[in-house]
């Protein structure tokens, strides 16, 4: 085992020398290990393995004050700054929780949280960056938290001391996730009743239950939607939508999920920038990094609610997996912002004219 670890450390050092800007997630992929296993090579130096009740640990993050939360999937990175207050967990087999704050707004699926590693990233003149990284049973990151210049590092020290555990390297026996179930054939689905239930929705959150009830994939549900509820749009429509929202000062909601966390930004976006294939939001409290080459399908989606129709822009990769989705900023009980409706309906109308 020690020989394997030494060999992996040597290969990692070579890779860092060859491609110093490569991200940890990509380094792990190159070396054929999980990100958690790769990071745990630093145990005893700048990495500390932590364990215990992760629900309690998340509630203790407030000791760090103002931090940056990061949640990502294969194609998009969502970074939001704020304070971890107002965290609630619910009883039941799904082991879910929420953090509802102006800055840190999360939906937590704690059955997926398996490992935690505290890390100090040495950045030379940039200073040391202290963080906490959480991983699932496959060694994939579900959520990361980093200190900011406004953070209290004594809070990070408190957490590492409280949740310190035996400093053993993370070993993941199998990194291969089970393949998702194949889509049901459309002819097995009661499309008429599905469409009727869609038209009678009273809350956007009920849509997830509707899709599960009929055992549909998300893209299959959009394909079988009632007439007028879904409009396919241009693959790079996200640039047009966010640019319009920035120019018209229309606040948005942006959702990004890993397997164990959904992270939400609510508010304005202002500074948009292309960097190669990446389309970015670069605001002081919110950053988004979207790999546009991964976008395969994009839809404007409409859902009835008791507050009126709510409209979203939803992006999917070639496997039909959700990349990210956007709404106009809205609180329950309030109708959708007219400015947001206008941006998406103008987009949908343009798409219809080009067909």
Describe this protein's structure.
There is one protein chain. The N and C termini lie far apart (59 Å). The longest helix is centred in the first third of the chain and has 17 residues, at 2-18. 28% of the residues lie in helices and 31% in strands. The protein contains 10 helices and 18 strands. A 9-stranded antiparallel sheet has the order 1-7-8-9-2-3-15-14-13. A 9-stranded antiparallel sheet has the order 4-5-6-12-11-18-17-16-10. The chain is an alpha+beta fold. Helix 9 (237-247) packs antiparallel against helix 10 (338-354). The mean pLDDT is 94. It folds into 2 domains: 2-90 and 113-162, Heme iron utilization protein-like fold (3-Layer(aba) Sandwich), CATH 3.40.1570; 186-271 and 294-354, HemS/ChuS/ChuX like domains (Heme iron utilization protein-like fold, 3-Layer(aba) Sandwich), CATH 3.40.1570.10. The chain has helices at residues 2-18, 24-31, 35-39, 54-60, 153-162, 191-199, 206-213, 218-223, 237-247, 338-354, and strands spanning 47-50, 65-72, 76-82, 87-89, 96-99, 105-109, 115-121, 129-135, 141-151, 230-233, 252-257, 261-267, 272-275, 278-282, 286-291, 297-303, 310-316, 322-328.
Q: Top keywords for this entry?
A:
355 residues, alpha+beta, Heme iron utilization protein-like fold, 9-stranded antiparallel β-sheet, 18 strands
How many angstroms does the end-to-end distance come to? 59 Å
Counted beta strands? 18
Number of helices: 10
Looking at the chains present, what oligomeric state does this protein adopt? single chain
Q: Roughly what percent helix?
A: 25-40%
Overall tally of domains: 2
Strand content: 25-35%
What's the architecture of the largest domain, going by CATH?
3-Layer(aba) Sandwich
Query: CATH homologous superfamily name of the largest domain?
Result: HemS/ChuS/ChuX like domains
The neighbouring-strand order within the major sheet is: 1-7-8-9-2-3-15-14-13
């Amino acid at each position: 085992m020690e020989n394997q670890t030494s060999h992996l450390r040597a290969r990692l050092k070579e890779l860092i020398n060859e491609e110093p800007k490569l991200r940890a997630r990509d380094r792990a992929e190159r070396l054929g290990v999980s990100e958690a296993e790769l990071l745990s090579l630093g145990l005893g130096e700048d990495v500390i393995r932590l364990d215990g009740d992760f629900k309690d640990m998340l509630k203790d993050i407030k000791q760090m004050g103002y931090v940056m939360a990061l949640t990502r999937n294969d194609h998009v990175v969502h970074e939001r700054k704020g304070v971890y207050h107002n965290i609630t967990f619910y009883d039941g087999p799904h082991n879910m929780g929420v953090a509802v704050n102006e800055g840190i707004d999360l939906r937590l699926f704690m059955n997926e949280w398996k490992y935690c590693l505290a890390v100090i990233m040495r950045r030379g003149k940039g200073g040391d960056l202290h963080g906490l990284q959480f991983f699932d049973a496959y060694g994939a990151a579900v959520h990361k938290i980093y200190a900011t210049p406004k953070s209290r590092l004594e809070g990070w020290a408190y957490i590492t001391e409280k949740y310190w555990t035996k400093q053993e390297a993370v070993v993941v026996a199998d990194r291969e996730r089970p393949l998702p179930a194949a889509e049901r054939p459309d002819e097995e689905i009661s499309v008429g009743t599905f469409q009727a239930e869609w038209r009678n929705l009273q809350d956007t959150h009920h849509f997830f239950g509707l899709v599960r009830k009929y055992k549909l994939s998300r893209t299959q549900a959009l394909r079988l939607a009632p007439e007028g509820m879904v409009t396919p749009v241009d693959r790079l429509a996200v640039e047009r939508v966010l640019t319009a929202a920035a120019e018209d000062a229309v606040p948005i909601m942006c959702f990004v999920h890993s397997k164990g966390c959904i992270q939400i930004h609510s508010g304005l976006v202002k500074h948009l920038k292309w960097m190669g294939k990446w389309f970015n939001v670069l605001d002081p409290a919110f950053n988004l990094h979207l790999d546009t080459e991964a976008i395969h399908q994009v839809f404007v989606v409409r859902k009835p609610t008791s507050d009126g129709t709510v409209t979203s822009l939803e992006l999917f990769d070639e496997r039909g997996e959700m990349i990210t989705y956007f709404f106009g900023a809205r609180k329950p009980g309030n109708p959708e912002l007219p400015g947001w409706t206008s941006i998406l309906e103008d987009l949908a109308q343009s798409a219809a004219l080009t067909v």
